[in-house]
Amino acid sequence: MDLQTPLQYKIWADRRTLDAVARLDQRSASAAFAFARQQLNHMVRVEELFRARLIGAADPYASTNTHDVPQLTALDHRLMASNRWLQDYVRTLPPGEIGKYIRFAFVDGRNGMLTREEVIYHLINHGTYHRGAIGHALDLAGAHRPADTYTVFVHAAEPARRDAGPATDHRSSD
Q1: Domains, the chain, ranges and CATH?
Q2: How many helices (H) and strands (E) does the chain have?
């Protein structure tokens, strides 16, 4: 299975979210800004934990979040670096390795076992979940919430697919 397109989607959606958070007025929307930074911090820490697990290194953290949250610019840099690393990792992974299991311990001490492909899908889905929470915070702050669904991504990447002709009715006549 080609994971490059879902990873390109993740990069696109992460970038849109980071840019929307950066546009927040930090005085009038301080709660939304703080919440978004906390969510982004969690997202990137989870990605960095799973990166270590994918390469067989020790976990770099004992938790998936921190009391002191890095500045948005640092989170932006780390999240985009993580995205580039994931793309390179998938692109250079030897054939047959994507389906192999890795064993690891979660930060709560419980053991886990996933294929490398499942780890990548987890990270894609994990980001989607937290971008949704950030989007809700943006809504509550009256800020711009970027559309970050996969369909918007596909049609932005391939505009000709948006107006490809009349829809086909696939309903059964039974």
Answers
A1: 4-161 (1.20.120.450)
A2: 5, 2
126 is in an annotated binding site: yes
Q: Is 144 annotated as a binding residue?
A: no
Distance CA 70, CA 126 (A): 20
The reply to whether 130 sits in an annotated binding site is yes
Q: Over the stretch 111-149, which tens digit does the pLDDT of each residue have?
A: 999 999 999 999 999 999 999 999 999 999 999 999 988
- Alpha carbon 69 to chain centroid distance? 18
Q: What is the largest CA-CA distance in the chain?
A: 60
The closest of 129, 128, 138 to 12, measured between CA atoms, is: 128
Q: Measured between alpha carbons, how far is 116 from 159 in angstroms, rounded to an integer? A: 32
Residues of the chain with pLDDT under 50: none
Q: Under a CB-based contact definition with an 8 Å cutoff, are residues 35 and 65 in contact?
A: no
Tokens 């419980």 label which residue?
110
